Amino acid sequence: MTExxxxxxxxxxxxxxxxxxxxxxxxxxxxxxxxxxxxxTTYLAAEGSPEQxxxxxxxxTDKRLDLISYGAADxxxxxxxxxxxxxxxxxxxxxxxxxxxxxxxxxxxxFDNDGRTIEISADVAVRRHRKVEEGEAIPVxxxxxxxxxxxxxxxxxxxxxxxxxxxxxxxxHPRMGNMMWFMRTNSFHHSMAIARGPHPALHHASxxxxxxxxxxRGTGKMLRAGVExxxxxxxxxxxxxxxxxxxxxxxxxxxxTTELEVLDEDTWHPHLxxxxxxxxxxxxGTANAMDEFVAAKSFNDVDxxxxxxxxx
Length: 312
Fold this sequence. Notes:
alpha/beta; 20% helix; globular; VOC_core; dioxygenase activity; GlyoxalaseI/FosfomycinResist; dioxygenase
C-alpha cells in the first residue's frame, strides 16, 4: 500500500428536504450534469472529471451529509484498510464488497470519529468525460471538502493515523487558537480541511474551475442569478487558491475555486497562518471581510446523520 491510503476525493453525498430546488441549482446554475437517477436519488457529474459523479443528492425529510467518498489504489488496498480500521475499533457499516452505485467498483463504508459516513472504493469504472473549453463557467471536478467538528485535534489525528493524511497548513487566531487544518492525500495542498466549529457538519464543498477567467465567469453567473454569496471573490494564502462561496437552496456552502497549489512534498513544511491578518484570508483584498456572518453560514445546521448510515 502507498504512503497515502486514499488516492483522491471522489464525491460528496447530500440529503436535502427541498430536492427539486437543489437539483435545479446544481444543474441549471452550478453547472453539473445529471449522470443518473434512481428513485429519490440523483447523481451529478462534472464534465471534466472521470468520476462517475461528484455530487449525489437524495430527497429526505432531514438535511444531512450522507457521505464523503475517497478512492483507493485497488481492491487489496480496500481490504487492507477495512482490516486496519476493524483492528482499531472503528465501526464499519459494511464489509468490503461490490458497490451498487453508478460505476460499480469494490468498497465499504465506516463511521469516522465524529460519526460521518466515509466510503472507500476502488475499481470504479471511469466516466467518459471531456476537456472543459476556454470560457466555460462549469466545474472541472470536485476539489476538496471541508468539515466542522468540535474536536478538530482528534479528527486530524484520526485521519493521520488510519489514512496517512498529512497537514499542509494550519490557520490560527490569536484569541481562539488553531482553527483549521488543511489535509492532503496526494500532492494537492488539500482534499480535506478540518475546521473547529460548534457541531459536526459540512463546512463547504469546493469545485475546481478551468482557470481564472472561468472562475470569475462562474462567480459572476451566480451573482447575476441572485444566488446568495457568502464570501469572495478572493485568493487564500493557504493553498494559494481562489474562492467564491455561495449558499445552495438547502443552506450548504459551495465554493468555486481554481489554481489550488500542488506541493513539492519533499521540501514542503506546514505554515501556521494567523487569519486575523487580512492577507491570509484574501491575498487580493477583493473579498468581503471574514466576519461572524461568514463564519455562521459555514457552521451549517446540526448534522442529523451522525452515526446513522444513509439508506443509499
